[in-house]
Amino acid sequence: MLILTHDVNAPTSSEITPESHYLNRRSFLKSAGIASASVVTGTSGLILPQSANALALPYAPIAERPDAPSYLKKKISSRKLASKNPTGETLTPYENVTTYNNFYEFGTDKSDPSANAGTIKVSPWNVKIDGLCNKPGTYSLEAWSMVVPWLGFPLADLIRRFQPKSNAKFVEFHTLLDPKQLPAQTGSALPWPYVEALRMDEAMHPLTIMAMGLYGRSLPDQNGAPLRLIVPWKYGFKSIKSIVRITFTDRAPVSTWMRLAPSEYGFFANVNPTVDHPRWTQASERRLPSSLFNQNRRKTLMFNGYGNEVAGLYKNMDLKRYF
To answer: Is residue 120 part of a domain?
Structure first.
């Protein structure tokens, strides 16, 4: 994982979002005790991808944002950020990231979410926290649209705030269930609401992120606004969007794809190029942008290239069996 923080040249007062606006829009983060997400701390929260599938991760320089403060443009330029990417790979274009999506609540084609996402209202937004924790409750989250140099926060910070009990072994997530806002939920493509889950140690890993923005902008509706899960080594498998409920439990939840196709999708759903999906190979992947004449295919990396960081989570597990 590559986390970039800017060295502190204090911004001028004109470059900082007014405090009254900022405080009114951070009720969820304040209640969750996640102060590190603010401009005051100097933490950028930018995470660069390190491998093929992970290059679709919605993180890129805040400096690309037209209204980014000048000190960020100076300190976090696109060129400098790219130079710190150990892969040397080009970031996936914003247009591809926001128009090629899986969000079945808006339709099953990759282009459906960007075409249909205007029906969802992401502000105000409430997230219910329940299950095996000492501090359950419903917390308000408002969409951010101001100049703050961060794009997400570690899920671990959120989990600690709600004090899971010792017998809580798993974290379960639910997407909003509202066919008026998510029209494809009137169909039977999937059992609704969409459900995903992580083992507690996966959820607590510092690479696991609750994302609220991409490419220096607020998270687009089609990408899971206002709050979605990012698990870089499981990207493409565990990326639940528009989260409204987080539950701590002692039993392994049955995720949506496990329920729909248990022979194809296991609970762990790691990126493992040595295990073929029953209907296609995972040994290679097509990186965006691509075309009919340039498939832009390359070898898939184990754990999306994050093996050094996360392989220990699965020590002594047969990942061909526990797929």
So the answer is: yes
CB-CB neighbours of 250 under 10 Å: 13
CB 208 within 8 A of CB 230: yes
89: confidence class by pLDDT, cuts 50, 70, 90:
low
Cβ contact 180:119 at 8 Å: yes
User: pLDDT (tens digit, 9 = 90+) per residue, 119-168?
Assistant: 988 888 899 999 999 999 998 875 343 333 337 889 999 999 999 999 99
CA distances from 37 to 12, 77, 99, 154, 184 (A): 19, 20, 27, 10, 33
pTM (two decimals): 0.71
C-alpha angle 277/56/40, rounded to 5°? Answer: 135
Q: Which domain holds residue 156?
A: 2-8+16-308
114/146: higher pLDDT: 114
Contacts of the segment 32-35: beta carbons below 8 A, 24+ positions apart: 32/139, 32/157, 32/158, 32/161, 33/157, 33/160, 33/161, 34/153, 34/157, 34/158, 34/161
For the chain, give the longest Cα–Cα distance: 57
pLDDT of residue 176: 97
Q: How many domains does the chain have?
A: 1
Question: What six digits make up the tokens of 127?
Answer: 């997230």
Report DSSP state, residue 291.
Answer: -
Burial label for 320, CB within 10 Å (0-12, 13-18, 19+), is exposed
Residue 304 within any structural domain of the chain: yes
